[in-house]
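Entry 14. Structure prediction run on the chain below.
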Amino acid sequence: MGWLFVFLAAISEIVGVVGLKMYSQQKTWRNGLIYGGGFATSFAFLYISFKFLQVSIAYAVWIGVGTAGAVLINMIVFGESRSIGRVMSVGLIIIGVVGLKALS
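Output returned:
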């Protein structure tokens, strides 16, 4: 059950990052709500996950999945650089997250 909350927290963090990008481009209530709501929801789900998982593992997986997801979404949606170095770095983050989950 804890992993579900970590996954939902990571998805919410990605929504928050997208909202932050949109808010930085155009300061509207809608974009601000996506930005703030995404991060607030993310923290709420992460907090709930601590009841089921070790904080160190849940936090590291949340950060890893959220970071990798945000980078990929920004590459696809907002046209950020898709250099081989960035793609390989995202791959390393994913390997690290899978390793933490597998060993917990």
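The longest helix spans residues 2-25.
Filed with the rest of this week's runs.
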